[in-house]
Specification:
Blueprint (H helix, E strand, L loop, with lengths): L5 E3 L5 E2 L14 E2 L3 H34 L3 H7 L6
Antiparallel strand pairs: 1-2, 1-3
């Protein structure tokens, strides 16, 4: 279970979660075992948001094309009774 242990950032020795400083080298920079997991969750959340925004953008572009696809000439050809 080395993944879920606190490590000293200086000497990379395992330290207790209650230690404020490394008992081996005295460094106060203790690495949390959950930092990488939080980073991964944040990145996954950002990727989901970006994919959703891209999907909405593409869907909006397709809706605009279907509205703009009818030219002025095609509108008159669809309803011949209004041309008289």
């Amino acid at each position: 279970m080395m993944l879920y242990q606190y490590h000293c950032a200086c000497c990379d020795k395992v330290v207790a979660s209650t230690d404020k400083a490394c008992p081996y080298c005295g460094s106060q920079h203790i690495k949390s075992p959950y930092g990488l997991w939080m980073f991964c969750v944040a990145v996954c959340f950002a990727v989901v948001i970006i994919i959703q925004l891209a999907h909405l953008y593409v869907q909006h572009q397709q809706d605009d094309r279907s509205v703009q696809g009818n030219s002025f000439f095609e509108l008159f050809q669809q309803n011949p009774n209004t041309a008289k």
